[in-house]
Amino acid sequence: MSEQGKSPRVALVTGAARGIGKGIALRLAADGLDVAVNDIEANTDQLKGVADEIAATGRRATTVVADVSDPDAVQSMVEQVAAELGQLNVMVANAGIANVKPLLESTPEEFDHLMSINLRGVYLCYTAAAKQMIKQGDGGKIIGAASIVAYRPFPLLGPYSASKWAVRGLTQAAAMEWAQHGITVNAYCPGIVGTAMWDYIDEKLAENEGLRKGAAIEKYSELIHLGRVSVPEDVASFVSYLASPDSDYMTGQSVMIDGGIQFS
Ligand code: NAD
User: I want to staple 150 with a disulfide (CB 3.0 to 4.6 A). Which of 2, 120, 164, 239 is the partner?
Assistant: First the structure.
C-alpha cells in the first residue's frame, strides 16, 4: 500500500540482517514506511547492507545494533529510533533462535538462553514499543514472530515450541491491555521458510534421523498442500497487512502462513 502524500510511518524490525526479518524490512519500505533495522553485533555488516537497500528505495533507514534479550538495550533501541526517525508506529519483534535436540538432552542453560531471546526478547520489544506508542498518542501496530509450532509440536523443537506457544499467549494478553490505546497486537506463524534458521534445523533433523543433508526438508515439503516451502516474501506480505490500516479491526491473533502443512 502506498503511503504517498502522508507523513511516513516508522517501523522497527528486529533480527533484520537476514532471512524473514530482512524480507519484512524491505517489504515495509516498499509499502512506504521508513524503517529501522536491528540485529546483533556479529551481523552489523549484513545489517548495514539491508539499510542501504532500503535507502536506495528512497525511504529513510537506520540501523540499531542491540541484543533483544537485554532490557536496557531494547529501551535504548526504541528511544534511538524515535529520536532519529521521529516516531515509532510499527514494531516487528522478529528476532529468534532455534535449538534442535531431544528434550531429555537439552540443558536448563540452553532452555533459558532460548527463552531469553524468543520470549523475553519479544516481551521487551512489545512493552518498550507500547510505551513509546502510548506516549505518541496515535495508536500503533505491534507484531511478533510465533510459528506453526505455537499450535502443535514439531520433532526436536520442544523448548522452541514452548517459546512460540508463549508468544501466542503474550500476544493475546497485550492485545487485550493495549486496545484502549488504539494499539493492535498480532503474530505471524510461518511454517517452513528457506532461511539460515531452517538450514540449521534441516541439518540437525537429518543428523538425528540418519538422513543426508537436504533429505529432511524434502520429507517435510511433501506434507505442504501448496507443494513448496516458503520464502521470506510470503511471510512479509502478511506482515505488510498486519502493519497497515487494513488490519485495524484485527487484534490478538496468531495466524499460520504455512502453505497448509500437515504434520503430527
Ligand atoms: P534467521 O536465523 O535466518 O534470522 C534471525 C535473525 O535474528 C538473525 O539475523 C539473528 O542474528 C537475529 N537474532 C538472533 N538473536 C538475536 C538477538 N538476541 N537480538 C537481535 N537479533 C537477534 O531466522 P529466520 O528464519 O529469518 O526467523 C525469523 C523469525 O521467524 C524467528 O523468530 C523464527 O523463530 C521465526 N520462524 C522461522 C521459521 C523458519 O522456517 N525459518 C518458521 C517459523 C518461525
Answer: 164
Residue with cell 545494533: 65
Whether 258 is in the pocket of ligand 1, judged by its Cβ within 6 Å, is: no
Does 198 reside within a domain? no
Tell me the residue range of the domain where 51 lies: 10-191+231-257
Q: Residue 6: what residue type? A: K
In the reported structure, the alpha carbon of residue 4 is separated from the centroid of ligand 1 by a whole-number distance in angstroms of 31
pLDDT tens digits, 155-189: 899 999 999 999 999 999 999 999 999 999 999 99
ipTM value for the complex: 0.99
CATH of the domain at 53: 3.40.50.720
Question: Has residue 262 been placed in a domain?
Answer: no
Beta strand pairing call for 10-13 and 90-93: parallel
Q: Determine if ligand 1 sits within 6 Å of the CB of residue 21.
A: yes
